[in-house]
Amino acid sequence: MDVKMKNKKSHSHFDLAINFFRPPRLKHSNSRLYLANNLLKIPKSKRSQITIFIILGLIVIVLIALLFLLIKPPEIKVIDENNPQAFIESCTRESVEQALDILSKQGGDIEPKGYISYNGEDISYLCYNIEYYQPCVNQRPLLIEHIENEITDYIEPLVKECFVKLENELEGRYDIETSSLELKTTLYPKNIVVDITKKFKITRGNEIRKFESFKMIMVHPIYNLAEIAMEIANQESEYCNFDELGYMIVYPSYDITKFIRGEGDIIYTVTERATDQKFTFAIRSCALPPGY
């Protein structure tokens, strides 16, 4: 009897020693299955809340990333005193872009006179007749030359400001002599050229630099868009119609849409597909009275 008791005690001490050094056992042999089972025990309402929080967190991260990508730091223009031409060219380009943005939406005019209001814009008529049944009369037979003059008149005061900025930047380091400014805008297929005639002389000690003229060349299809607009106006004045679908088959580089408004007002928009540059203008030709 005593021997049996001793054996039991020795076994119990032995088991305690083994259990002390043995790592704790999980209730489930497969820990992944254990976690999955525990997750499934979470109530559906709480699981849906966790899912919503995860989705909202991802949305916030994406929005922050987009803000960093879209918000650009302000551009700081540094005038290179060794290259005034580059500054004047850049400044002139910005002025021309402003002019084009305005007149391309308004039928070639900076300040339209004979126009129709459409989508918040005053759009000039390139061909117009107020009478019913009568073909329109071309209002801008020299549209390209007109646009050249509109650009020149718009940008001239802005280009003068460009030279004032340049002079202010160089003043104190150079003696500056300038003359009056003459400006000419010329449209070519796919290009705009602005020629600026102005004497600009800067002197510092024995260093003398003279500039007689400045030039800005810009790639833009306004010439081509205006040509198409004149073709539309000519056909409307002769046939009271323009076949835009047939024209786009022959010239697939351009898209032409028209919107008929009221009795006979037509809003045309010509778009160069490659650049998405547009030119919008109005036509009123062979208008029909109400009821037809």
Q: Can you summarize this structure?
A:
The radius of gyration is 38 Å and the shape is flat. Strands 1, 2, 3, 8, 9 and 10 form a six-stranded mixed beta sheet that branches. Strands 4, 5, 6 and 7 form a four-stranded antiparallel beta sheet that branches. Among the domains are: 25-72, no CATH class; 84-105 and 141-221, no CATH class.
Protein topology:
Layout: H1 2-21, H2 31-40, H3 44-70, H4 84-103, E1 115-118, E2 121-128, E3 137-138, H5 143-170, E4 175-178, E5 182-188, E6 191-204, E7 207-219, H6 222-239, H7 244-250, E8 254-261, E9 265-272, E10 277-284
Helix pairs in contact: 4-5
Description:
Among the domains are: 25-72, no CATH class; 84-105 and 141-221, no CATH class. It is α+β, with helices and mostly antiparallel strands. The chain contains 7 helices and 10 strands. It is flat and about 80 Å long. It has helices at 2-21, 31-40, 44-70, 84-103, 143-170, 222-239, 244-250; strands at 115-118, 121-128, 137-138, 175-178, 182-188, 191-204, 207-219, 254-261, 265-272, 277-284. A hairpin with a 3-residue loop joins strand 8 (254-261) and strand 9. It starts with a helix and ends in an 8-residue tail after the last strand. Helix 4 packs antiparallel against helix 5 (143-170).
Summary keywords:
four-stranded antiparallel sheet, alpha+beta, 7 helices, flat, 26% strand, 292 residues, 10 strands, disordered N terminus, six-stranded mixed sheet
